[in-house]
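Notebook B, p. 112. Complex prediction, attempt 2.
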Amino acid sequence: MNAYIKLIDCIKSSKSILCVGLDTDITKLPKIFSSDLDSITEFNKAIIDATKEYACAYKINFAFYEQYGTDGFRLLENSLKLIPDNKFIIADAKRGDIGNTSKAYATAVFDYLRADAITVNPYMGYDSIAPFLDYENKLTFILALTSNPGSNDFQRLKVNEEALYTRVIKTTLGYANTQSIGFVVGATHPEELAEIRKIAPNNFLLIPGIGTQGGNIEKTLSANNNGPAVINVSRDIIYASDKEDFADRANEKARSYRNLLGTIQ
Amino acid sequence: MNAYIKLIDCIKSSKSILCVGLDTDITKLPKIFSSDLDSITEFNKAIIDATKEYACAYKINFAFYEQYGTDGFRLLENSLKLIPDNKFIIADAKRGDIGNTSKAYATAVFDYLRADAITVNPYMGYDSIAPFLDYENKLTFILALTSNPGSNDFQRLKVNEEALYTRVIKTTLGYANTQSIGFVVGATHPEELAEIRKIAPNNFLLIPGIGTQGGNIEKTLSANNNGPAVINVSRDIIYASDKEDFADRANEKARSYRNLLGTIQ
């Protein structure tokens, strides 16, 4: 199934635009878990079970798994298998390399791990993104204006009177159809989010930065203007408690976010 | 040991600025190898043995391993262990994410895999690069002007009269000392390489794009003007022959490149 359609379906069935980020770090797990690496999968299972009623999607950030090497990659694979089929899977890998190399990354994420979507970095241009877009039934989220402080360093530089991130969006919109390309736009920039929504009214936006990073929900929703979007929350949900009640607290947090976020019309 | 000093030593001891890229793809191995994934490590061992006399460094591109999932990551780990201690190891991963996530990538590459250097993408700005620079004894190669056709799409955009890649170099030079930061500059852009050499005269440059990608050796050496640099060749060496003589041909190709490239003075 086409990923764009799948994501719309996932949003409808969960009545939620919440994406839960599985940025799982062994050092931050509730104390009831052992320090064995397999605790990561156990924790993820508990979090997925506790939040799936209120989430349309899960985002898994590769860095948190790669730091444990081969064992970490196995935990990543196993964690992805725990996500129900009716949830959308975003591989938050921020990849991008010369053509033949990006092709191998696309194989990793789409063929091997069977994710529905990936995040990619646009700096290396068309041939670094095209191999992901060749998977017409997948969704490729291109980094536009990210949620972190460093987004001010290059993404906002002016190129012919417009910001680089705007140029990135306008150029990459020409690379493939609306259903294949999405953009990453941080909730920490609501004014710019409103602008971007106008430039790309029908493309999915992946919006991180709510919660620990400080993005404001009302401003984000207002800026998004009911466009197709998923809003990611990671740490504020998965680490809602470091005690035995962590799953109950994650469940409550996810429900609370779902209710605050509403759905797209 | 400080990676900058180590790389200078590796160049001196091998009398070579050649870096061999282990972009190993199971479908391109000589026919004497079985289709079992472990053939990748066997092939890499043969290539490392055949080329180590003429190479100062090895660059391993993560994409070619990640495409096989957990098994691939194991092959990557095992391949890195085959590289002699007196050779410089570059993790060609092109990573970059928000601060706490880049920290996990740095852990993966520097603590876990024990590489000497990594390639990183600058699009997300300072806090996406800083966690790598926190490893003062490692070298972080920042993508500046890459070797691929897509380098024209964003890297060359004019920002206040100068190209974005120039701005990236000038800005990131301020992030850490000369010995911690290097830049990736494609051999396919010799004129710009000459400019960059002037902006960053003492930083290491990692120069890919020679061989299959078409970069010219003489123009590259002239543009580099004897600055600190390593020149990477991947496919043209490792796939020099698809027959039983692949290691001998790789040895000859590496020697030939070493002799053509010379060393830095």
